[in-house]
Protein backbone atom coordinates (compact mmCIF):
# COMPACT_ATOMS: atom_id res chain seq x y z
CA UNK A 1 0.00 0.00 0.00
CA UNK A 2 2.91 2.37 0.64
CA UNK A 3 4.44 1.81 -2.80
CA UNK A 4 1.60 0.65 -5.04
CA UNK A 5 3.87 -2.25 -5.94
CA UNK A 6 3.69 -6.02 -5.64
CA UNK A 7 6.14 -7.83 -3.33
CA UNK A 8 8.29 -9.03 -6.23
CA UNK A 9 8.87 -5.33 -7.00
CA UNK A 10 9.23 -3.66 -3.59
CA UNK A 11 11.04 -6.70 -2.03
CA UNK A 12 9.79 -6.33 1.56
CA UNK A 13 9.09 -10.07 1.47
CA UNK A 14 10.67 -11.43 4.66
CA UNK A 15 9.61 -11.21 8.29
CA UNK A 16 10.52 -7.71 9.48
CA UNK A 17 11.95 -6.99 6.02
CA UNK A 18 12.13 -3.51 4.52
CA UNK A 19 11.42 -1.97 1.13
CA UNK A 20 14.33 -2.12 -1.32
CA UNK A 21 16.51 0.97 -0.98
CA UNK A 22 16.30 1.75 -4.69
CA UNK A 23 12.51 2.13 -4.49
CA UNK A 24 12.07 5.89 -4.24
CA UNK A 25 8.32 6.12 -4.76
CA UNK A 26 6.18 6.01 -1.63
CA UNK A 27 2.82 7.37 -0.58
CA UNK A 28 4.12 10.23 1.56
CA UNK A 29 6.72 11.47 -0.91
CA UNK A 30 4.24 11.27 -3.79
CA UNK A 31 1.67 13.41 -1.97
CA UNK A 32 4.26 16.10 -1.37
CA UNK A 33 4.60 18.90 1.16
CA UNK A 34 1.37 20.63 0.22
CA UNK A 35 -0.29 17.97 2.39
CA UNK A 36 0.30 17.65 6.12
CA UNK A 37 1.25 13.98 6.43
CA UNK A 38 0.51 11.82 9.47
CA UNK A 39 1.43 8.20 10.30
CA UNK A 40 0.60 5.81 13.13
CA UNK A 41 1.09 2.04 13.02
CA UNK A 42 0.48 -0.08 16.10
CA UNK A 43 1.92 -3.04 14.22
CA UNK A 44 5.72 -2.90 14.80
CA UNK A 45 6.52 -4.33 11.35
CA UNK A 46 4.21 -1.87 9.59
CA UNK A 47 5.79 0.91 11.65
CA UNK A 48 9.17 -0.21 10.32
CA UNK A 49 8.00 0.01 6.72
CA UNK A 50 6.44 3.43 7.19
CA UNK A 51 9.65 4.48 8.93
CA UNK A 52 11.39 4.30 5.58
CA UNK A 53 9.18 7.24 4.53
CA UNK A 54 10.21 9.13 7.67
CA UNK A 55 11.70 12.14 5.87
CA UNK A 56 8.34 12.85 4.20
CA UNK A 57 6.14 12.52 7.31
CA UNK A 58 5.19 15.56 9.38
CA UNK A 59 3.83 13.74 12.46
CA UNK A 60 4.85 10.15 13.12
CA UNK A 61 3.61 8.47 16.30
CA UNK A 62 5.47 5.63 18.01
CA UNK A 63 3.75 2.20 17.86
CA UNK A 64 2.83 2.42 21.54
CA UNK A 65 0.97 5.75 21.24
CA UNK A 66 -2.46 5.72 22.92
CA UNK A 67 -1.72 2.27 24.40
CA UNK A 68 -1.24 1.25 28.05
CA UNK A 69 2.54 1.31 27.78
CA UNK A 70 5.04 3.75 26.33
CA UNK A 71 7.75 1.10 25.90
CA UNK A 72 8.26 2.01 22.24
CA UNK A 73 8.11 5.75 22.77
CA UNK A 74 11.90 5.89 22.45
CA UNK A 75 11.58 4.89 18.78
CA UNK A 76 9.65 8.07 18.08
CA UNK A 77 12.59 10.11 19.37
CA UNK A 78 14.75 8.98 16.43
CA UNK A 79 13.18 11.29 13.89
CA UNK A 80 15.89 10.85 11.26
CA UNK A 81 15.77 7.04 11.07
CA UNK A 82 12.70 5.53 12.64
CA UNK A 83 13.25 2.16 10.91
CA UNK A 84 16.85 1.67 12.03
CA UNK A 85 15.87 2.63 15.58
CA UNK A 86 13.12 -0.02 15.59
CA UNK A 87 15.53 -2.70 14.36
CA UNK A 88 18.23 -1.75 16.87
CA UNK A 89 15.91 -1.45 19.87
CA UNK A 90 13.38 -4.22 19.28
CA UNK A 91 15.57 -6.79 17.54
CA UNK A 92 18.86 -6.32 19.39
CA UNK A 93 18.93 -4.17 22.50
CA UNK A 94 15.42 -4.89 23.83
CA UNK A 95 14.01 -7.95 22.02
CA UNK A 96 10.66 -7.90 23.81
CA UNK A 97 9.22 -10.82 21.86
CA UNK A 98 10.86 -13.06 24.47
CA UNK A 99 12.13 -12.43 27.99
CA UNK A 100 14.91 -14.97 27.37
CA UNK A 101 16.07 -13.66 23.98
CA UNK A 102 19.69 -12.49 23.71
CA UNK A 103 20.04 -8.75 24.26
CA UNK A 104 22.79 -6.27 23.46
CA UNK A 105 24.42 -6.84 26.85
CA UNK A 106 23.86 -8.68 30.13
CA UNK A 107 22.55 -5.52 31.76
CA UNK A 108 20.18 -4.73 28.91
CA UNK A 109 19.03 -8.34 28.86
CA UNK A 110 18.15 -8.16 32.55
CA UNK A 111 16.24 -4.91 32.06
CA UNK A 112 14.45 -6.34 29.05
CA UNK A 113 13.45 -9.49 30.92
CA UNK A 114 12.03 -7.39 33.74
CA UNK A 115 10.11 -5.22 31.27
CA UNK A 116 8.56 -8.18 29.47
CA UNK A 117 7.70 -10.09 32.63
CA UNK A 118 6.00 -6.99 34.03
CA UNK A 119 3.70 -7.01 31.00
CA UNK A 120 1.22 -9.23 32.86
CA UNK A 121 0.80 -6.53 35.49
CA UNK A 122 -0.10 -3.93 32.84
CA UNK A 123 -2.61 -6.04 30.96
CA UNK A 124 -5.09 -6.46 33.81
CA UNK A 125 -8.40 -4.64 33.48
CA UNK A 126 -11.84 -5.39 34.94
CA UNK A 127 -13.31 -4.89 31.45
CA UNK A 128 -10.96 -7.55 30.03
CA UNK A 129 -11.15 -10.53 32.34
CA UNK A 130 -8.88 -12.56 30.05
CA UNK A 131 -6.37 -9.76 29.63
CA UNK A 132 -6.20 -6.83 27.24
CA UNK A 133 -4.85 -7.30 23.71
CA UNK A 134 -1.22 -6.51 22.92
CA UNK A 135 0.36 -5.28 19.72
CA UNK A 136 3.56 -7.28 19.79
CA UNK A 137 6.71 -6.35 21.68
CA UNK A 138 4.65 -6.56 24.88
CA UNK A 139 2.62 -3.38 24.23
CA UNK A 140 -0.85 -3.76 25.81
CA UNK A 141 -3.75 -1.62 24.64
CA UNK A 142 -7.53 -1.31 24.71
CA UNK A 143 -9.41 -0.71 21.47
CA UNK A 144 -11.65 1.92 23.01
CA UNK A 145 -8.64 4.07 23.93
CA UNK A 146 -6.93 3.45 20.58
CA UNK A 147 -9.99 4.66 18.68
CA UNK A 148 -10.43 7.59 21.06
CA UNK A 149 -6.80 8.44 20.32
CA UNK A 150 -7.48 8.24 16.59
CA UNK A 151 -10.33 10.71 17.00
CA UNK A 152 -8.10 13.08 18.99
CA UNK A 153 -5.38 12.89 16.33
CA UNK A 154 -7.84 13.64 13.53
CA UNK A 155 -9.26 16.59 15.44
CA UNK A 156 -5.72 17.88 15.79
CA UNK A 157 -5.19 17.45 12.05
CA UNK A 158 -8.38 19.39 11.40
CA UNK A 159 -6.66 22.48 12.83
CA UNK A 160 -4.01 22.41 10.10
CA UNK A 161 -4.15 25.18 7.52
CA UNK A 162 -3.26 22.77 4.70
CA UNK A 163 -5.10 19.60 3.66
CA UNK A 164 -3.87 16.47 5.39
CA UNK A 165 -3.36 12.78 4.80
CA UNK A 166 -3.53 10.40 7.77
CA UNK A 167 -2.64 6.71 7.80
CA UNK A 168 -3.74 4.66 10.83
CA UNK A 169 -2.55 1.03 10.93
CA UNK A 170 -4.43 -0.34 13.95
CA UNK A 171 -3.64 -3.77 15.33
CA UNK A 172 -6.96 -5.42 16.18
CA UNK A 173 -8.43 -7.87 15.35
CA UNK A 174 -4.93 -9.35 15.17
CA UNK A 175 -3.86 -12.21 17.45
CA UNK A 176 -3.86 -12.41 20.45
CA UNK A 177 -7.65 -12.19 20.24
CA UNK A 178 -8.74 -10.51 23.45
CA UNK A 179 -12.24 -9.03 23.10
CA UNK A 180 -13.72 -7.00 25.93
CA UNK A 181 -16.01 -8.81 28.38
CA UNK A 182 -19.28 -7.61 26.80
CA UNK A 183 -18.21 -9.10 23.46
CA UNK A 184 -17.35 -12.46 25.02
CA UNK A 185 -21.10 -13.14 25.03
CA UNK A 186 -21.31 -13.26 21.22
CA UNK A 187 -21.23 -16.22 18.81
CA UNK A 188 -22.12 -19.07 21.13
CA UNK A 189 -24.19 -20.65 18.34
CA UNK A 190 -22.20 -23.87 17.81
CA UNK A 191 -21.28 -22.74 14.30
CA UNK A 192 -19.30 -25.40 12.46
CA UNK A 193 -17.47 -24.25 9.31
CA UNK A 194 -16.93 -26.46 6.28
CA UNK A 195 -14.41 -29.14 7.13
CA UNK A 196 -11.37 -29.10 4.84
CA UNK A 197 -8.62 -31.69 4.40
CA UNK A 198 -5.22 -31.32 5.99
CA UNK A 199 -2.83 -29.62 3.56
CA UNK A 200 -0.36 -32.14 2.03
CA UNK A 201 2.65 -30.20 3.30
CA UNK A 202 1.59 -30.60 6.95
CA UNK A 203 2.32 -33.62 9.11
CA UNK A 204 -0.30 -33.13 11.78
CA UNK A 205 -3.58 -31.33 12.18
CA UNK A 206 -4.38 -28.67 14.75
CA UNK A 207 -7.17 -29.90 17.01
CA UNK A 208 -10.58 -28.77 15.71
CA UNK A 209 -11.79 -27.59 19.12
CA UNK A 210 -8.82 -25.23 19.40
CA UNK A 211 -9.45 -23.80 15.92
CA UNK A 212 -13.13 -23.22 16.71
CA UNK A 213 -12.28 -21.48 19.99
CA UNK A 214 -9.79 -19.19 18.28
CA UNK A 215 -12.23 -18.47 15.45
CA UNK A 216 -14.92 -17.44 17.94
CA UNK A 217 -12.51 -15.13 19.79
CA UNK A 218 -11.44 -13.62 16.46
CA UNK A 219 -15.08 -13.01 15.48
CA UNK A 220 -15.77 -11.36 18.83
CA UNK A 221 -12.80 -9.06 18.47
CA UNK A 222 -13.94 -8.18 14.93
CA UNK A 223 -17.32 -7.25 16.38
CA UNK A 224 -15.68 -4.97 18.93
CA UNK A 225 -13.51 -3.31 16.28
CA UNK A 226 -16.59 -2.85 14.09
CA UNK A 227 -18.37 -1.09 16.96
CA UNK A 228 -15.40 1.14 17.77
CA UNK A 229 -14.95 2.10 14.12
CA UNK A 230 -18.65 2.91 13.91
CA UNK A 231 -18.38 5.19 16.94
CA UNK A 232 -15.34 6.90 15.42
CA UNK A 233 -17.15 7.55 12.14
CA UNK A 234 -20.18 8.89 13.97
CA UNK A 235 -18.06 11.30 16.02
CA UNK A 236 -16.16 12.46 12.93
CA UNK A 237 -19.40 12.99 11.04
CA UNK A 238 -20.88 14.99 13.91
CA UNK A 239 -17.74 17.14 14.14
CA UNK A 240 -17.82 17.97 10.43
CA UNK A 241 -14.44 16.33 9.81
CA UNK A 242 -15.90 14.10 7.08
CA UNK A 243 -17.33 16.96 5.05
CA UNK A 244 -14.34 17.14 2.69
CA UNK A 245 -12.60 13.86 3.51
CA UNK A 246 -12.16 10.50 1.85
CA UNK A 247 -12.10 7.59 4.30
CA UNK A 248 -10.53 4.32 3.18
CA UNK A 249 -11.03 1.23 5.37
CA UNK A 250 -9.09 -1.92 4.55
CA UNK A 251 -6.85 -4.61 6.09
CA UNK A 252 -3.51 -6.27 5.45
CA UNK A 253 -4.65 -9.89 5.84
CA UNK A 254 -7.28 -12.23 7.22
CA UNK A 255 -6.83 -15.37 9.33
CA UNK A 256 -6.92 -19.10 8.60
CA UNK A 257 -8.65 -21.61 10.87
CA UNK A 258 -8.64 -24.57 8.50
CA UNK A 259 -6.62 -27.34 6.77
CA UNK A 260 -4.45 -27.71 9.86
CA UNK A 261 -3.41 -24.05 9.64
CA UNK A 262 -3.99 -21.32 12.19
CA UNK A 263 -3.29 -17.63 11.67
CA UNK A 264 -1.67 -15.89 8.70
CA UNK A 265 2.11 -16.27 8.95
CA UNK A 266 2.46 -19.09 6.45
CA UNK A 267 2.77 -19.79 2.74
CA UNK A 268 -0.93 -20.58 2.36
CA UNK A 269 -2.92 -18.16 0.21
CA UNK A 270 -6.50 -19.33 0.62
CA UNK A 271 -9.31 -16.80 0.50
CA UNK A 272 -9.70 -16.56 4.28
CA UNK A 273 -6.27 -14.97 4.56
CA UNK A 274 -6.01 -12.90 1.35
CA UNK A 275 -9.57 -11.68 0.76
CA UNK A 276 -9.87 -8.46 2.74
CA UNK A 277 -12.42 -5.65 3.05
CA UNK A 278 -12.08 -2.42 1.09
CA UNK A 279 -14.60 0.32 1.78
CA UNK A 280 -14.25 3.92 0.66
CA UNK A 281 -16.41 6.84 1.72
CA UNK A 282 -16.25 9.89 -0.57
CA UNK A 283 -17.18 13.46 0.42
CA UNK A 284 -20.88 14.08 -0.11
CA UNK A 285 -21.62 10.42 -0.80
CA UNK A 286 -25.22 9.54 0.06
CA UNK A 287 -25.70 6.11 -1.53
CA UNK A 288 -23.86 2.82 -1.34
CA UNK A 289 -22.19 1.59 -4.52
CA UNK A 290 -20.80 -1.95 -4.81
CA UNK A 291 -17.93 -2.91 -7.12
CA UNK A 292 -17.61 -6.64 -7.76
CA UNK A 293 -14.53 -6.80 -9.98
CA UNK A 294 -11.42 -8.10 -8.15
CA UNK A 295 -9.01 -5.39 -7.04
CA UNK A 296 -5.82 -5.29 -4.96
CA UNK A 297 -4.44 -3.17 -2.15
CA UNK A 298 -1.72 -2.03 -4.58
CA UNK A 299 -4.55 -0.03 -6.19
CA UNK A 300 -5.02 2.19 -3.14
CA UNK A 301 -1.98 4.42 -3.66
CA UNK A 302 -2.67 5.17 -7.34
CA UNK A 303 -6.26 5.99 -6.40
CA UNK A 304 -5.19 8.38 -3.62
CA UNK A 305 -2.74 10.13 -5.92
CA UNK A 306 -5.34 10.46 -8.64
CA UNK A 307 -7.83 12.00 -6.20
CA UNK A 308 -5.12 14.40 -5.01
CA UNK A 309 -4.22 15.38 -8.58
CA UNK A 310 -0.74 13.92 -8.29
CA UNK A 311 1.15 12.00 -10.99
CA UNK A 312 1.50 8.22 -10.81
CA UNK A 313 4.94 6.63 -10.89
CA UNK A 314 5.41 4.41 -13.93
CA UNK A 315 6.80 1.51 -11.87
CA UNK A 316 3.60 1.11 -9.82
CA UNK A 317 1.78 -2.20 -10.28
CA UNK A 318 -1.50 -0.79 -8.99
CA UNK A 319 -4.33 0.79 -10.98
CA UNK A 320 -6.83 3.51 -10.15
CA UNK A 321 -9.87 1.85 -8.57
CA UNK A 322 -13.18 1.64 -10.48
CA UNK A 323 -15.57 4.32 -9.30
CA UNK A 324 -12.72 6.76 -8.66
CA UNK A 325 -11.52 7.29 -12.21
CA UNK A 326 -10.35 3.75 -12.99
CA UNK A 327 -11.90 1.26 -15.36
CA UNK A 328 -13.38 -2.15 -14.60
CA UNK A 329 -10.92 -4.72 -15.97
CA UNK A 330 -12.32 -8.20 -15.34
CA UNK A 331 -9.49 -9.89 -17.25
CA UNK A 332 -6.78 -8.29 -15.13
CA UNK A 333 -4.81 -10.84 -13.06
CA UNK A 334 -4.70 -10.12 -9.32
CA UNK A 335 -1.63 -11.43 -7.47
CA UNK A 336 -0.90 -12.34 -3.86
CA UNK A 337 2.60 -13.45 -2.92
CA UNK A 338 4.13 -15.12 0.15
CA UNK A 339 7.91 -15.34 -0.29
CA UNK A 340 9.07 -15.34 3.33
CA UNK A 341 11.68 -18.08 2.64
CA UNK A 342 13.11 -16.36 -0.44
CA UNK A 343 16.01 -13.95 0.00
CA UNK A 344 15.06 -10.33 -0.64
CA UNK A 345 18.27 -10.01 -2.68
CA UNK A 346 17.61 -12.78 -5.20
CA UNK A 347 14.95 -13.45 -7.86
CA UNK A 348 11.73 -15.07 -6.64
CA UNK A 349 12.24 -18.84 -6.84
CA UNK A 350 10.73 -20.05 -3.55
CA UNK A 351 7.29 -18.65 -2.90
CA UNK A 352 3.57 -19.26 -2.94
CA UNK A 353 1.85 -17.11 -5.56
CA UNK A 354 -1.90 -16.84 -6.03
CA UNK A 355 -3.30 -15.42 -9.25
CA UNK A 356 -6.99 -14.54 -9.42
CA UNK A 357 -8.60 -13.98 -12.83
CA UNK A 358 -12.36 -13.57 -12.93
CA UNK A 359 -13.74 -16.50 -10.91
CA UNK A 360 -10.68 -18.73 -11.33
CA UNK A 361 -7.79 -18.77 -8.89
CA UNK A 362 -4.44 -20.49 -9.32
CA UNK A 363 -2.08 -21.11 -6.39
CA UNK A 364 1.49 -22.05 -7.30
CA UNK A 365 3.97 -23.37 -4.72
CA UNK A 366 7.40 -22.68 -6.19
CA UNK A 367 10.43 -24.35 -4.63
CA UNK A 368 8.36 -26.49 -2.26
CA UNK A 369 8.39 -30.27 -2.50
CA UNK A 370 5.19 -31.81 -1.22
CA UNK A 371 3.64 -33.33 -4.34
CA UNK A 372 1.01 -30.67 -5.04
CA UNK A 373 2.68 -27.66 -6.71
CA UNK A 374 -0.54 -26.19 -8.16
CA UNK A 375 -4.09 -25.71 -6.96
CA UNK A 376 -6.91 -24.41 -9.14
CA UNK A 377 -10.29 -23.26 -7.86
CA UNK A 378 -13.54 -21.91 -9.26
CA UNK A 379 -14.45 -19.33 -6.63
CA UNK A 380 -17.88 -18.63 -8.08
CA UNK A 381 -19.09 -22.20 -7.64
CA UNK A 382 -16.68 -23.24 -4.89
CA UNK A 383 -16.06 -20.25 -2.60
CA UNK A 384 -14.75 -22.51 0.19
CA UNK A 385 -12.00 -23.86 -2.12
CA UNK A 386 -12.96 -27.46 -1.49
CA UNK A 387 -12.48 -28.78 -5.05
CA UNK A 388 -8.97 -28.52 -6.47
CA UNK A 389 -9.44 -28.58 -10.26
CA UNK A 390 -5.74 -28.78 -11.14
CA UNK A 391 -6.04 -32.41 -12.30
CA UNK A 392 -9.50 -31.96 -13.87
CA UNK A 393 -9.19 -28.79 -15.96
CA UNK A 394 -5.82 -29.11 -17.68
CA UNK A 395 -6.54 -26.38 -20.24
CA UNK A 396 -7.36 -23.68 -17.69
CA UNK A 397 -4.43 -24.78 -15.51
CA UNK A 398 -2.01 -24.53 -18.44
CA UNK A 399 -3.31 -21.13 -19.55
CA UNK A 400 -3.15 -19.64 -16.07
CA UNK A 401 0.29 -21.13 -15.37
CA UNK A 402 1.62 -19.57 -18.57
CA UNK A 403 0.26 -16.17 -17.59
CA UNK A 404 1.55 -16.37 -14.03
CA UNK A 405 5.06 -17.34 -15.12
CA UNK A 406 5.09 -14.63 -17.78
CA UNK A 407 4.53 -12.02 -15.04
CA UNK A 408 6.95 -13.70 -12.61
CA UNK A 409 9.72 -13.95 -15.19
CA UNK A 410 9.26 -10.30 -16.16
CA UNK A 411 9.47 -9.29 -12.49
CA UNK A 412 12.60 -11.39 -11.93
CA UNK A 413 14.26 -9.96 -15.04
CA UNK A 414 13.46 -6.41 -13.94
CA UNK A 415 14.87 -7.18 -10.49
CA UNK A 416 18.08 -8.62 -11.95
CA UNK A 417 18.47 -5.53 -14.12
CA UNK A 418 18.10 -3.20 -11.10
CA UNK A 419 20.68 -5.24 -9.16
CA UNK A 420 23.16 -5.09 -12.01
CA UNK A 421 22.76 -1.32 -12.24
Give a brief description.
By secondary structure, the chain is an alpha+beta fold.
Give the helices and strands, then pairings.
Blueprint: H1 7-10, H2 27-31, E1 36-41, H3 44-51, E2 59-60, H4 73-76, H5 82-93, H6 106-117, H7 119-122, H8 143-157, E3 164-169, H9 208-239, E4 247-250, E5 256-258, E6 261-263, H10 271-274, E7 278-281, H11 300-307, E8 334-338, E9 351-357, E10 360-366, E11 374-378, H12 394-420
Parallel strand pairs: 1-2, 1-3
Antiparallel strand pairs: 4-7, 5-6, 8-9, 9-10, 10-11
* Percentage of residues in helical conformation: 25-40%
How many independent structural domains?
Answer: 1
What proportion strand?
Answer: 5-15%
User: Which regions contain 5 or more consecutive residues with pLDDT less than 50?
Assistant: none
Q: How large is the count of helical segments?
A: 12
How would you describe this protein?
By secondary structure, the chain is of the alpha+beta class. It has a single domain (7-320), classed as Alkaline Phosphatase, subunit A (3-Layer(aba) Sandwich). 32% of the residues lie in helices and 12% in strands. It contains 12 helices and 11 strands. The strands form 4 sheets. The protein has a 4-stranded antiparallel sheet, with helices on one face. It has a 3-stranded parallel sheet with strand order 2-1-3. Helix 3 packs antiparallel against helix 5 and helix 8 (143-157) packs parallel to helix 9. The radius of gyration is 22 Å and the shape is globular. The relative contact order is 0.11. The model has no long low-confidence stretch (mean pLDDT 88).
Amino acid sequence: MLTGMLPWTHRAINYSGVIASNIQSNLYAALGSDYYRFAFAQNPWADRLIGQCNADIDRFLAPSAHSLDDGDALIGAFENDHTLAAIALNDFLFPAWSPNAPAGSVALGYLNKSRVLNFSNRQNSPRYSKGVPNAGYATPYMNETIYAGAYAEIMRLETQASPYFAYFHLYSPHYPYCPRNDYQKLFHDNYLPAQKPLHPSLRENIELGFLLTQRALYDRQIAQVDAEFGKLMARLDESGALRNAYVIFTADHGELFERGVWGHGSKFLYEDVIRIPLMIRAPGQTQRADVFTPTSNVDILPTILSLAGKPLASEMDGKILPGFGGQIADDRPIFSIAAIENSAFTPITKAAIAMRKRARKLIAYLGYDFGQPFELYDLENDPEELKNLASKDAQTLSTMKDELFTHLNAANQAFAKRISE
